[in-house]
Amino acid sequence: MKKRIISAIVMLAIVIPIVWYGGNLFRFGVGVVSILALKEMLDLNKSHHELPLLVSLVSVITLLLIVLAEYDGYSIMFGVTYRGIAILLLSLLGLSIFYDEKKYTATDALFLIGTIILLGVSFNAMILARMTDLYLFIYLILIFIFTDTFAMLMGMAFGHHKLIPKVSPKKTIEGSVLGSLIGTVVACVFYHFLVNSISVSVVLVTLALSILGQIGDLIFSKIKRENDIKDFSNLIPGHGGILDRLDSTIAIMLGFLLFYSLL
Question: Bridge partners of 236?
Fold first, then answer.
C-alpha cells in the first residue's frame, strides 16, 4: 500500500503541471505515454516472438503521426498526415512478406494496425479535449476517477451480484450502477460550474461516458486474462502499467469523439 501511495503522489506531481500547462508540453507528454502503452501491447506478443526492430520503429512512427496529428478543419496538414499514415500502415502489412513466420507474420501486422489505430485515436482525442478547454478535459477525467473509485467502494459495501465474473471476478452489478451514478453526478456538477450550463443531453452523455469507461476497464481486463498476466507492466510500482491506469480513459476518450458536439 505504501508503494502504491508513493507512486500515486509521484504521478500526480508529474501529470498535474503538464496538464495545467497544456500546449506542446502536453502533446509531448501524451506522445511519450502513447509509446509506453504501445510497448505494453507489443510485449504481449513476446510469448510468441519478438517483433523485428524495423517493424517496431515503423509502428512507433505511425502511432505518433496519429496521436499528434491536427485533424481539426481537415487542413492541408491533415491531408499530408493522412497520406503518411496510410503509407506506414500499408508498410506494416507489406513487411510481413519479407520476414520469416517466426519473426513477423501477417497476423502480427493486423494486430499492430488495430492496436496503433485504437491507441492513436484515443490519445489524439485526449489532446483534442485538453486543447479545447482545460476544464472540459478535467471533466472527462473526473468521470473516470469517480466512476472507477465508487464502483469499487460501492461494490465492496453493497455488491452481491457479480457483473461478468469470467472477466473481472470482483466487479458487481451494484458497484457498477452506483459507480456510474456517482461519477455522473460529480462530473455534471463540475461541468455546470466550470465548463458550461448543464442540460439533459450533457447528463445523458456523461452517463454514457461513465458506462463506456467501465466497458473499457472490462475489455482490458479480458486482454490480461487471455494473456495470463496480472498487469500490463510494472512501470508504475503498485499500479501496474500505463494501460492498467488508462484502460477506462481510453474508452471515455473514444466516447468523447462520438459525443463531442453534444457537450
Answer: 240
Q: How many CB atoms within 10 Å of residue 217?
A: 24
Q: State the Cα–Cα distance between residues 49 and 108, nearest whole angstrom.
A: 10
Q: What is the mean pLDDT of residues 105-121?
A: 92
For 132-173, write each residue's pLDDT tens digit: 999 999 999 999 999 999 999 998 888 788 989 888 888 999
pTM of the model: 0.92
Strand partners, 240: 236
Q: How far is CA 9 from the centre of its chain?
A: 21
What residue type is assigned to position 23 of the chain? G
Residue 218 in 3-state DSSP? helix
> How far apart (Å, rounded) are the C-alpha atoms in residues 223 and 231?
10
Looking at residue 148, its pLDDT comes to 94
Residue 171: name the closest of 105, 216, 228 by CA: 216
Q: Where are the beta strands (DSSP E) in 82-190?
A: none
- Give the C-alpha distances (Å, rounded to integers) separating 250 from 52, 76, 91, 182, 212: 27, 28, 26, 20, 9
